[in-house]
Design brief:
The complex is a heterodimer of chains A (971) and B (173).
Chain A (H helix, E strand, L loop, with lengths): L3 H19 L3 H14 L4 H13 L3 H13 L5 H13 L3 H14 L4 H14 L2 H14 L4 H17 L1 H21 L6 H13 L3 H9 L1 H4 L7 H12 L3 H14 L4 H17 L18 H13 L8 H16 L5 H4 L2 H12 L5 H6 L7 H15 L15 H16 L2 H4 L2 H18 L15 H18 L3 H16 L4 H13 L6 H7 L6 H5 L1 H4 L8 H32 L2 H15 L2 H16 L5 H12 L30 H37 L2 H4 L15 H18 L20 H6 L2 H19 L13 H10 L10 E4 L2 E4 L2 H40 L9 H27 L21 H37 L4
Antiparallel strand pairs in A: 1-2
Helix pairs in contact in A: 1-2, 1-3, 2-3, 3-4, 3-5, 5-6, 6-7, 7-8, 7-32, 8-9, 9-10, 10-11, 11-12, 12-14, 14-15, 15-16, 16-18, 17-18, 18-20, 20-22, 22-23, 25-26, 26-27, 27-28, 27-44, 32-33, 32-34, 34-35, 34-36, 35-36, 36-38, 36-40, 36-42, 38-40, 40-41, 40-42, 41-43, 42-43, 42-44, 43-44
Chain B lengths: L2 E4 L9 H4 L9 H10 L5 E4 L5 E10 L6 E9 L8 H15 L4 E7 L3 H9 L3 E10 L5 E9 L23
Parallel strand pairs in B: 4-5
Antiparallel strand pairs in B: 1-2, 2-3, 3-4, 5-7, 6-7
Classes of the chains: A mainly alpha (971), B alpha+beta (173).
């Protein structure tokens, strides 16, 4: 090994290269590396750093070949190794990191650092067997270091996760034995090691053994996490059906923290297990520990004791809710002890009296409303209204709350009455009057929040939200857009008073999108700082709309951001696993692996990725070469997850909503919408693959496949063996079959206005000419392919039918009979986004058609060239040119004219172009005396106008490019 | 009435009602994962009876010698669950763990403008140890208070004697 001073010299020499790399100055890094190499030819690390700079500059093949050579020389010095690991990390060639350290470890089997890097390299690959092997080598090298030994144990546990059957018969017993060895030899040092032993025993379902550990001296060492020993013990006893122990463990925990809901649930559940089984306690075991409460009476006494023991100044919600939970459990069993426990109505009344001034009171009470019949519900509501005392002002002026507490109580009462379905039974008049009243209460409530910071929510915000929900009820019932626009105006005003309120923003985005106006959404979205993992859980609120409403540039930006989050995370994921081994948090490892899997299979990831790639094929491609370049780039990225395997990480419950359970069915919406999303994703993936295989078929026919096509070899996108034309045929067939199978989705679906997800565009695509059109173009490509094997002179007009089929279908893309942006609803003019959505779909289709026409052109060009050559050579009168070329040109000309018509339709949407003043239509019908609302309304219209304008312009821009593209295709 | 339990990865999919609040920063995943892997006992979440996430605390233990202390990295409670004393509950948990780890004190940073939070921490026994200039970057940079509370091991309460002068972020240890 090199001496220390030697290493220092090297370090000093390498420093400037590292600095340049850190600053992103790759060119200079190469120069510095060359300088060092001149002085010291064999300084491998300098070569690696040069290669790294080359890679970062995009000179991949130069960089890679240098690395390959160095790799083959099997370096062992740490500097070189870690620099190479950086290169491989950046190029995501993780297996090479393992093989690099593997070789180094062969040369230096006693080098702890190299071995531990090798272990981590295997962690990155999830190669549990190799992890185990390497950890054991480390253990043999440093037997005194416990972590290495337990790395091996954990690696065995992970093998058990991978193979359940072998896990139980082989891996877990081995892991258990290895740990027991250390226990016997009293070599256990850390809490993490005991926890790992517990993990193993629990996986083996050896509950008695786990119990012994927890109750024994090792259990005593589990002190790092709060209540860990007790809750673990209770979990194990639950498995062993030792309900008395479970009950008494939680009883003791409740003595310390009587407000913990989880503890109460577990305490009561265990108690009722004993009630159900007629448990009789053993007289002798009552010494020392707490006695278990095995009857309803004992539990009731315990709960009541907790209530009685509370200081009146600090009322805890826990024991009171426990009382209700006890009643719920009694009721569900039809036990005749119910009266002694109390009545649900009485308890709920009291609960409101005590906690009505807390915002969370509504949520708490909803858990127990099912215990009431409808007359009891009415009685509860009237008790609450009476006790709040703000609803008794019929015909007179509105009574306003005197303080925040009274206001909150009132708000909870309104929420509960909505939950009970009262709002949905109202007449339109009463509903609108209530909405108006709540707005006034909201405004008055703002006076309580004058001192609040901009970052705080206003105390009365939820009044406004409820007022808006009532307007939306009315909108759903009548279909009259006046209400939705009023809702928008009120929410816009709400944001001014309470800029931190994300509920307002979420609902605004939703309503704008429903009405076809995407323009204001990005600003609202950004204002909520949606980033990192929130891209996954919340991205859905914009991602179904941005393309649908023709904001293509924004779509590109949004999808890129979303996709980047997932890709970056994939690169970093293994780092977390490594930290878990490093810090001995073995319990996390399986959790991290599952978490990563959930991200990789995210619906949001897959759909944003697919949409982004389709967008790339559509935007800024004004000639076929650009499409081929884009397709080549996409082919390297496509790694499809089966649509059935996607997971739904959407946070659909984020929007506040107080609707009755009969109207709000979150689980149902999630299930239905996920089915629709999966279907839509599959359709889009098929479209994408269809286009990619068409482009490849074009390259093949043009004879260029050998030149450009080689770039797709290494990436293995698709199975690689399928010939492009076969692939194209297969995708078209799959797409048509799939469409036929998916007719369930041909009717647009609707979910809950406030809380449900939004439909996809699938209905639109299934019912339009879009898929048929792609099939028609496929026929053209196939036809051209056949011509390559035929004598052109034999081609007659009879065979030339494919071109006409395309133009006839494409004609259907021209959106007809739409009155631009408006439709008439019961004599009123309403803004209507249907036309926009149809137009966007047509623009998208014409873009795909253009790509396919480009493929045809690719196939026809060599034929034309050959024909020209042949006829020039021939001395006699040249034979008549086959009609193919002319027919193709005619098709392109026709497509171009369709594009032009779409262009006209798109520019017709622009309100400026059609000299339309949306504001003058007064679509929200707000009375002029409401000056504040009127001014806000004007701003809303200017946003609407700008948004529609943007959609129109972007459509025109795309179409303009397509016309240019089509022009280049003329033969 | 809440459930306090260790934070799990999957909670990251559900914490939006806490994190969409403007003062709650959403970090990149490695940040959360590092805390989960390294200081799992310091990462606790509160869940409501209806199953919603009400708030969470992230913390760690670090420092050498008498600087060995618990640190509150993030503490946030969703708007609808404020004024229930939940932050105090989370802080108590963190202090207790720090006691078990034999820390000398617990510290945290808070925006000087966040009067509600400063007042709350004062009520929980924290005092301003020093002011950190322009600690929070944004459209306008903002100062932070470094607030501390001595734990039982620091019998003389040396750790909380306030510094007379503000410090710059690069002077923090």
């Amino acid at each position: 090994m090199a001496s220390r001073s030697h290493v220092d010299v090297n370090e000093r020499r390498l420093r400037p290269i590292y600095d340049c790399l850190d600053n992103g100055n790759n060119k200079k890094a190469i120069q510095e590396a060359d300088k060092v190499l001149k002085k010291q030819k064999d300084l491998t690390c300098a070569k690696v750093l040069k290669a790294l700079a080359l890679l970062r500059m995009g000179r991949v093949s130069e960089g890679s070949s240098m690395l390959t050579a160095i790799h083959a020389s099997e370096p062992t010095d740490e500097q070189t190794l870690s620099a190479m690991a950086i290169c491989y990390k950046e190029t995501q060639q993780y297996p090479l990191i393992a093989s690099l350290y593997e070789a180094a470890a062969r040369h230096q089997p006693a080098n702890e650092d190299i071995l531990s890097c090798l272990f981590m390299a295997h962690v990155r690959l999830g190669n549990y067997q190799q992890q185990q092997r390497t950890a054991m080598m480390l253990h043999k090298l440093r037997p005194a270091k416990n972590p290495y030994y337990f790395w091996a144990v954990m690696s065995i546990v992970m093998q058990a996760h991978k193979d359940r059957a072998l896990g139980l018969s082989m891996y877990l017993p081995l892991a258990e034995k290895m740990t027991q060895k250390y226990i016997k030899e009293e070599k256990i040092e850390a809490e993490a090691e005991i926890l790992l032993y517990l993990i193993i025993l629990e996986l083996e379902e050896k509950w008695e053994e786990a119990l012994a550990v927890l109750e024994g001296p090792m259990g005593g060492q589990l002190g790092n996490e709060l209540n860990l020993r007790e809750t673990r013990l209770a979990a194990v006893c639950t498995k062993l059906l030792k309900w008395d122990t479970v009950n008494s463990i939680y009883k003791q925990l409740l003595d310390v923290t009587p407000d913990d809901w989880h503890f109460w649930l577990k305490y009561l559940d265990a108690g009722f297990e004993m009630v159900d089984s007629g448990f009789e306690p053993d007289q002798d075991t009552s010494e020392g520990g707490q006695r278990a409460d095995h009857t309803v009476d004992l539990m009731r006494e315990f709960v009541e004791g907790k209530i009685a023991g509370m200081e009146p100044a600090v009322l805890l919600r826990g024991p009171f809710l426990a009382q209700l939970q006890l009643l719920k459990l009694v009721t569900s069993r039809n036990l005749d002890v119910a009266p002694s426990v109390g009545s649900a109505l009485q308890l709920l009344k009291e609960y409101f009296d005590k906690f009505g001034h807390k915002f969370c009171c509504f949520g708490d009470m909803t858990l127990f409303l099912d215990l009431l019949n409808s007359s009891e519900t009415d009685e509860l509501l009237s008790h609450i209204q009476g006790s709040v005392g703000l609803d008794e002002s019929e015909g007179e002026d509105l009574l306003f709350a005197k303080d925040i507490s009274q206001m909150t109580r009132h708000m909870v009462s309104v929420q509960l009455s909505r939950r009970a379905g009262k709002h949905h039974l109202m007449s339109s008049e009463a509903r609108l009057a209530l909405s108006q009243q709540l707005q006034l209460r909201y405004r008055q409530g703002l006076s309580f929040g004058r001192e609040l910071l901009q970052t705080d929510l206003q105390y009365s915000d939820n009044y406004l939200l409820m007022a808006v929900h009532l307007l939306l009820d009315e909108w759903s019932l009548t279909g009259d857009d006046v209400y939705v626009w009023r809702a928008v105006v009120h929410l816009e005003l709400g944001i001014r008073e309470s800029p931190a309120n994300f509920q307002f923003k979420l609902l605004l985005i939703r309503l704008y999108c429903i009405k076809g106006v995407f323009g204001p959404c990005p600003a609202l979205y950004d204002a909520m700082e949606m980033k990192h993992i929130i891209n996954d859980t919340m991205g859905y609120i914009v991602s179904n709309h941005v393309v649908r409403l023709g904001h293509m540039m924004e779509a590109g930006t949004m999808y890129s951001t979303m996709v980047r989050f997932f890709l970056v995370n994939q690169k970093e994921a293994s780092e977390h696993l490594m930290s878990s081994y490093k810090f001995g948090s073995f319990g996390r490892i399986q959790e991290f692996v599952e978490f990563q899997d959930r991200l990789d299979r995210s619906l949001q990831f897959q759909s944003a990725h697919t949409e982004k790639m389709l967008l790339d094929l559509m935007l800024q491609t004004d000639c076929h070469e650009a499409v081929e370049a884009a397709a080549d780039c996409i082919a390297t990225q496509t790694k499809h997850i089966q649509c059935d395997e996607v997971v739904d990480n959407r946070d659909l419950a984020i929007a506040l909503c107080w609707d009755p359970p009969s109207r709000l069915k979150p689980e149902q919406y999630r299930e239905d919408s996920l089915a629709e999303e999966k279907c839509w994703l599959q359709l889009r993936q098929l479209e994408l693959q269809l286009l990619l295989s068409a482009v490849a078929a074009g390259l093949e026919m043009s004879g260029a496949a050998g030149l450009n096509g080689n770039s797709s070899e290494g990436h293995g996108g698709g199975d690689g063996k399928e010939a492009p034309l076969d692939a194209l045929n297969a995708r078209v067939k799959e797409l048509l079959d799939f469409a036929a199978k998916s007719q369930d989705f041909a009717e647009p679906r609707q979910y809950h206005v406030v809380q449900g997800p939004h439909r996809t565009r699938i209905a639109n695509i299934l019912t339009g000419p879009h898929l048929e059109l792609l099939a028609a173009l496929r026929d053209c490509v196939v036809y051209i392919h056949d011509l390559h094997q035929k004598d052109l002179e034999s081609v007659g007009d009879k065979q030339e039918t494919c071109w006409k089929a395309v133009t006839e279908t494409a004609r259907k893309l021209v959106v007809r009979n739409v009155d631009g942006l408006f439709k008439d609803m019961q004599g009123k003019r309403q803004l209507d986004s249907t036309a926009l959505e149809l137009l966007v779909a047509s623009v998208e289709s014409i873009s795909y058609v253009t790509v396919m026409a480009g493929v045809c052109c690719r196939g026809l060009k060599p034929l034309k060239l050959a024909w020209n050559k042949k006829t020039k050579k021939g001395k006699g009168p040249s034979p008549p040119q086959p009609s193919t070329f002319e027919n193709f040109n005619n098709m392109v000309a026709e497509l171009s004219s369709i594009t032009k018509e779409l262009h006209q339709a798109a520019s017709g949407l622009d309100p400026v172009f059609s000299s339309l003043d949306i504001a003058s239509l007064r679509l929200a019908d707000i009375p002029e005396q409401q000056a504040l609302e009127c001014e806000a309304e004007r701003l809303v219209w200017s946003k609407v106008e700008r948004s529609v304008q943007q959609s129109s312009r972007e459509m025109c821009e795309v179409l303009h490019h397509k016309q240019f593209y089509l022009n280049t295709l003329m033969l | 009435m809440t459930t306090i339990r260790p934070f799990r990865c999957d909670d990251l999919f559900r914490f939006n009602n806490v994190n969409l609040d403007p003062l709650t920063e959403t970090y990149g995943l490695p940040f959360y994962m590092q805390y989960l892997a390294h200081w799992p006992e310091y990462f606790q979440v509160l869940e409501s009876p209806t199953g919603q996430i009400m708030g969470y605390i992230m913390g760690k233990a670090e420092g050498l010698g008498e600087q060995w202390h618990g640190h509150v990295t993030a503490l946030s409670v969703a708007p609808e669950f404020r004024r229930l004393g939940l932050a105090g509950k989370l802080m108590n948990g963190l202090e207790e763990i720090s006691e078990r780890k034999r820390c000398y004190f617990v510290d945290l940073f808070v925006r000087v403008s966040n009067k509600v939070a400063v007042a709350m921490y004062e009520k929980l026994g924290y005092s301003v140890y020093r002011r950190v200039l322009e600690y929070y970057s944004g459209d306008v940079d903002e100062d932070a208070f470094d607030m501390r509370k001595a734990l039982s091991r620091d019998t003389e309460k040396k750790s909380v004697i306030p510094l007379p002068h503000p410090v710059r972020p690069d002077e923090l240890d």
